[in-house]
Amino acid sequence: MRQLAAIALQVLFYIAFMAGVGYFSTRPAYTHQDPALALVKLSFSHAGERKEDCRRLSPEEIADLPPNMRRPTKCSRERVPLYVELLLDDRMLYRAELPPSGLSGDGASSVYRRFPVPPGTHRLTAKLRDTRREQGFDHERSETVTLSARQNFVIDFKADIGGFLFL
Amino acid sequence: MRSALRKLFECVDVCLNAAFSPAANPMFQLGAMGWFFYWIVVGSGIYLYIFFDTGVTEAYESIQALTESQWYAGGIMRSLHRYASDALVVVALLHVLREFAADRLHGARTFTWITGVALLWFIYASGITGYWIVWDMFAQYVAIATAEWLDALPIFAEPIARNFLHDATLSGRFFTLFVFIHIVVPLIMLFFMWLHIQRLSQPAVNPPRRLALGTLAGMLALSLLYPATSQGPAVLTQVPAIVGMDWFYFFLYPLLDRYSGSALWAVVAGGTALLVLLPWLARSRQAPLRVARVDLPNCNGCGRCVADCPFGAITLQPRSDGLPYGTEAVVDPDLCVSCGLCVGACPTATPFRRRSKIIPGIELPDFPMAKLREDMIRVMAGIEGSARVLVVACTKGNSALTVQGDGFGMVSMPCVGMLPPSFIDFALSRRHADGVLLSGCADNDCFHRLGQRWTRMRIEAERDPALRARVPRDRVAINQQDTVGGTLNRQVLAFQQRLANYTDPGQGGNRTCVN
Ligand code: HEM
Ligand code: SF4
Ligand code: SF4
Fold first, then answer.
1. Cβ A112–B145 below 8 Å, yes or no?
2. Which string of DSSP letters, residue by residue, matches A2-70?
3. What is the CA radius of gyration of chain B?
């Protein structure tokens, strides 16, 4: 009798343990973003212009250099920060200056940002300044898009294929 | 907090003892259960790997095929793989809590504790990459959330999460990398599991067969009734807004959405630091005892202490004092937890010696055997009757305690396994007591791991040094738990009743008395 009760208890324990493992392995469901919203993701990695032009060295300056390092020009490697703006309809979603990466500031600037937005038809505008100018933009794209709920709308930037990509 | 935790464990232990018996109580086997689940995960993982195709679409499809058209084999393997990984998390976390509650993290045990903390990282790294390679909607969530989380660290020039921007930019090479990580991390983990038990002799890495079979049957039943499935293929143009979450592995991930990647790093780094420092932060309940010391003139190099030390702290080394024995015992003070089991094992620790001072080959300086002999005689002196009980209590490493009660006297030591069997013989044959009650930790939950086992085997003459055959075994009782207080009194009372009705076989109640 005792033996039987013990076995029943064991079975009960196994059921409880397995049920717990099974249940929490997928439930309760997790809502990681409001399913009624769409998502606009702005992300790119792009190198801005160099901060300074290469400078021609004078003959004296060249002569000062060790023989194996003599070059006619001197180039600073530092790049300008990018300046980016993202507008949804007329609302500014994001505006930032993106510093170059790398210890000497000679690498690409990157951005990765998520913006949950209400679905529907919107005008999306992305602008980028990647040169030494102080005002205005070097790249701009504006499009009317219709976003559905849970759609992941990506805005990337690739200089070699014409600038902003709306994916 | 720790004592509340300990109380909680005690309640659970009692329940599970009733169901499983102490010999197969899963709570006493958490480390072994960890190994068991690990092997299930490895075994099922090898099967899955045979059928798994790496590639952006191939990964999902190959796993889907296993789950559906091969539900009776591949499907079960997949379910076992997932559920055993989840169960591994459960037993590992319980194991941590239990070792902490039991105060088994100080001194020489710190090494085991800290390698354990590393294991937690490996478990989580394995689980997270595992969910990643299925490439269903949950994998998509996990991959992106994890990549974004990694991007919160200032080490990557370009965000890794950019790899998951768009189906067109996702590369199959990336998958090969994940699969590689998902195989390599568990392999390194195996090495750490091995390291984790390096300082323990006879580590329990296999649960009792009954428990193993029951658990496997349970896992199989779960796999059949509620098979692990995918949550629809990953589509990067769609946000997996609601996912079925494996909370065992991802319970902290909501912090990423609610707060930030840096916040989660802070939690994880802080938690890890806390765990690593816990052996120093948490006050030890044990009085710091000095480690075992060998007395060379009395050590004959028999090696019994080496065999019985639960922490591998003793080695036999070439004789250094010219005595005509081949070897001598040497204690590594960094490994010794002062449990005294070596003293219980040493054949030279005998109270029958006709010298005024007994000095055994090995001894705990804080618990000299000569004093034990004196204490025994002292606490029993003046106790009357034919059911005088000598209680030998384990204090789990606490300082000594000698008590005299109604019809019994008590001596204590860090572990009942410290008592050389000759002392039982001595107490009974010299008529200092009519019965000896050994009161230690809960059955099969020995604080010093092997103390109970060795004690039992010595008394049953299955292990050296064995209790001499002339000692009537009915006069020796092993009881559990509670060194002071109600339970002990009840145990003593019950034992006294047994003793009162007992006559030694063939001696008509007249036991030899030599003093
Ligand atoms: C995969 C995870 C783990 C496995 C498979 C595992 C396995 C084991 C095993 C088999 C033992 C030996 C038990 C015995 O024979 O007494 C043990 C002991 C121990 N474990 Fe773990 N363990 C794991 C994780 C951890 C973690 C995360 C910690 C703590 C942070 C930890 C702390 C300890 C301690 C302190 C002991 C020593 C007990 C003693 O000295 O008496 N373990 N573990
Ligand atoms: S007291 Fe003896 S048995 Fe215990 S750990 Fe130290 S050397 Fe090993
Ligand atoms: S058990 Fe005693 S005699 Fe034997 S090796 Fe150890 S200390 Fe020496």
1. no
2. HHHHHHHHHHHHHHHHHHHHHHHTT-S-EESS-TTSEEEEEEEEE---BSS--EEPPHHHHHHS-GGG-
3. 28
Residues 6+ apart with CB under 8 A from B109: B199, B279, B337
pLDDT tier at B114 (50, 70, 90 boundaries)? very high
Indicate whether A67 belongs to any domain. no
Shared domain for A125 and A44, answered yes or no, is yes
Q: Are residues A133 and A97 in the same domain?
A: yes
Is residue B226 within 8 angstroms of chain A, CB to CB? yes
Is the CB of A43 less than 8 angstroms away from the CB of B221?
no
Tell me, yes or no, whether A123 and A107 share the same domain: yes
CB B240 within 8 A of CB B140: yes
Q: Which CATH superfamily is domain B2-281 in?
A: Cytochrome Bc1 Complex; Chain C (1.20.810.10)
Q: How far is B411 from chain A (nearest CA, A)?
A: 36
- With contacts defined as CB-CB under 8 Å, which chain A residues touch B214? 10, 14
Which CATH number characterizes residue A99's domain?
Answer: 2.60.40
In this structure, are residues B458 and B344 in contact, taking their beta carbons and an 8 Å threshold? yes
pLDDT tens track for B374-413: 899 998 988 888 889 999 988 875 555 667 677 888 898 9
pLDDT band at residue B506 under the 50/70/90 scheme: low
Interface list for A 49-78 with B (CB within 8 A): none
Alpha-carbon distance of B368 to B495, in angstroms, equals 28
> Domains in chain A: how many in total?
2
Length of chain B: 515
| Pair (A1, A45) in one structural domain | no
The answer as to whether A65 is a domain residue is no
Residue B105 near ligand 1, beta carbon < 6 Å: yes
Give A 10-49 residues with CB within 8 A of chain B: 10, 12-15, 17-22, 24-35, 37-39, 41, 43, 45
Q: For testing the chain B interface, which of A112, A147, A166 should be mutated: the one with the most B CBs within 10 Å?
A: A112
On whether residue A133 sits in a domain, the answer given is yes
Domain with CATH 1.20.810.10 in chain B: 2-281
Lowest-confidence segment of A48-57, B231-240, B416-425, B469-478 by average pLDDT: A48-57
| Mean pLDDT for the stretch of residues A79-92 | 88
B153/A contact by beta carbon, under 8 A:
no
Question: Is residue B171 scored above 70 in pLDDT?
Answer: yes
B248-276 pLDDT tens trace = 999 999 999 999 999 999 999 999 999 99
Report CB contact under 8 Å: B241, A15: no
Same domain, A94 and A108: yes
Burial zone of B104 (CB within 10 Å; 0-12 exposed, 13-18 middle, 19+ buried): buried
pTM metric for this prediction: 0.91
Q: Do the beta carbons of residue B434 and residue B476 sit within 8 Å?
A: no
Residues A18 and A44 in one domain: no
Q: Based on the fold, state whether residues A86 and A157 are members of the same structural domain.
A: yes
Which residue from B309, B453, B454 has its CB within 8 A of the most atoms of ligand 2, so it is best to mutate?
Answer: B309
> Which residues form the domain of A157?
34-51+79-166
Distance B301 CA to ligand 3 centre (A): 5
Distance B362 CA to ligand 3 centre (A): 6
Separation between Cα atoms, residue A73 and residue A81, nearest integer Å: 24
Buried b (16+ CB within 10 A) or exposed e, B106-140: bbbbbbbbbbbbbbbebbbbbbbbbbbbbbbbbbb
Report the pLDDT averaged over residues A67-90.
83
Q: Based on the domain organization, do A113 and A38 belong to the same domain?
A: yes
